[in-house]
Amino acid sequence: MAALCLAGAVFGGLRAGAELRRGPTDEELRRAAVAEIAGRWARWPANKIFPSGLAYSPEQGGEETAQRVGVSPETSCDAGLDARLLAKLRGCRGVLRATYVDALQGLAITVGVVAFPDERAALAAREALPEHVKPTPGLRALGFPRTITARFRDSARQAATVRQAGPYLVLTTAGALDGRPASAVRQQRPAVFGPASEMSEEVLRVLTEPATPRCGAKEWTC
Questions:
Q1: The 3-state secondary structure of the chain, one letter per residue
Q2: What is the pLDDT of residues 40-91, one digit of tens each?
Q3: What CA–CA distance (Å, rounded) separates 23 from 93?
């Protein structure tokens, strides 16, 4: 009887050892990659998510670069979103915001990354919004005191966009750099705010770009 117990223990130990020595399965690698992307919003430095410059194509053609003015230290969902919008975005984990100005320094554009637990939650949030979102309720404008964006407030929001990929929504809100309220604009020119869409697409592309799992590194769980 003792011999049988010993044999069972040895066999169990061999199986456990083999399990520890085997490499991760394809499914484990896939889950690790998904989890790594979902954690980038909280782990990556701000300047990796919001680079100092974002390229865009202006109305007149060519390529220009919008310059980052600042990044908000506030990351809570209610700090970054109007309450009426937040009520539709169930599962929001946090909102990162940065404000840029266009090359001609006529526009202020706030880009916001809204993080969700997974892609399913982000998709549900996108489906809860209209196809063409309005600036209000929306992403809150982010102006910085003692900078050229100081007068960019919620009342100055004139245009908005939304994009979704993976566990993220990227929202933008844009308006005149001088802070004039949307109600004071007689003729709407949607093309003026075209850069916001291109900028959000680039932020989202980098944030959701697949990476090769590196099992053993602290940011990976394989």
A1: CHHHHHHHHHHHHHHHHHHHHCCCCHHHHHHHHHHHHHCHHHHCCHHHHCCCEEEECCCCCCCEEEEEEEECCCCCHHHHECHHHHCCCCCCCEEEEEEEECCCCCEEEEEEEEECCCHHHHHHHHHCCCCCCCCCCCECCCCCCCCCCCCCCHHHEEEEEEEEECCEEEEEEEEECCCCCHHHCCCCCHHHHHHHHHHHHHHHHHHCCCCCCCECECCCCC
A2: 999 999 999 999 999 999 888 889 999 999 999 999 999 999 999 999 999 9
A3: 32
The letter for the amino acid at 58 is P
Instruction: Say how far apart CA 40 and CA 165 lie, in whole Å.
Output: 13
Rounded distance between C-alpha atoms, residue 112 and residue 76, angstroms: 12
pTM listed for this prediction: 0.86
Taking the C-alpha atoms of residue 12 and residue 68, their distance in angstroms, rounded to an integer, is: 58
